[in-house]
Amino acid sequence: MMRFWSALLLAMALLSVPALAGSWPVPNAAYDGTRVIKSGDVQMSGRIFHDHGKERWEMNMEGMTQVMIMRPDLEKMFMLMPQMNMAMEMPLNDGGNIPTPDRYTETVPEIIGQEVIAGEGTTKYKVEGNEGAGPYTVYFWITDDGITMRTQASTAEGSFEMHLEGLQRGVQSAELFELPAGVQVMPANPAMMNQTMPGQGP
Fold first, then answer.
1. Would residue 135 count as lying in a domain?
2. Distance from the first to the final alpha carbon of the chain
3. What's the whole-model pTM score?
4. 3-state class (DSSP) for residue 190
5. Residue 71: CATH number of its domain
6. Whether 50 contacts 58, CB under 8 Å
7. What is the count of structural domains for the chain?
């Protein structure tokens, strides 16, 4: 069970890409697709729906549907378990040490060049530094409308990879980003969060 929560938290940490400063592109797209994540021996994939910051990530684990709903407008995220009619609420910033572009809003990234990822034109960005457990290097492949198509990171603690498949742009239904009526909502247990939060990122 601990392994499951760790993997789920790893997955949801990659969902949100807020507005970025400096030379980063400004995310303004609505889309859906499949996001695939690998960190150490944890690998996950699931359907993702995004609309201007709000995101929904769906996956199936051992026959049970699990859903992460990200709400930057509320500064919250929800871990929904539909079959149990239950959801866990936590602050949006409980994303651990996962490399996402919003972690580097005050950093001017190095632009490596242009690449096509899964049929999408992207700009490849590089950020590197030395903090926490040691040196790190992170690469992001991002479209002009701010969709992160691919991420690769290497640190002294391990490696991290993510890519997006089957991208389709289009407005998403507002209901995707709301909890169903009647769902029991409970706060996240801080002790559990500390035990299960992955630490592969810089």
1. yes
2. 25
3. 0.75
4. helix
5. 2.50.20.10
6. no
7. 1
Beta bridge partners of residue 101, listed in sequence order = none
Spatial contact of 70 and 109, defined as CB atoms under 8 Å apart: no
Domain span holding position 12:
2-196
Q: Name the token pair of 34.
A: 């499949």
> One digit per residue, pLDDT tens: the chain, 202 residues?
444 444 444 444 443 343 343 477 877 889 999 999 888 888 888 999 999 888 999 988 777 888 999 898 898 889 999 989 999 998 876 544 567 776 777 778 889 999 999 999 999 999 888 766 678 899 999 999 989 999 998 877 788 898 999 999 999 999 999 999 999 999 876 544 443 333 344 5
Nearby residues of 134 by Cβ (< 8 Å), 6 or more positions away: 155, 156
Residue in the block written with tokens 């026959």: 63
Distance of CA 136 to the CA centre of its chain: 19
Task: Give residue 4's identity as a one-letter amino acid code.
Answer: F
Matching residue, tokens 């500064």: 75
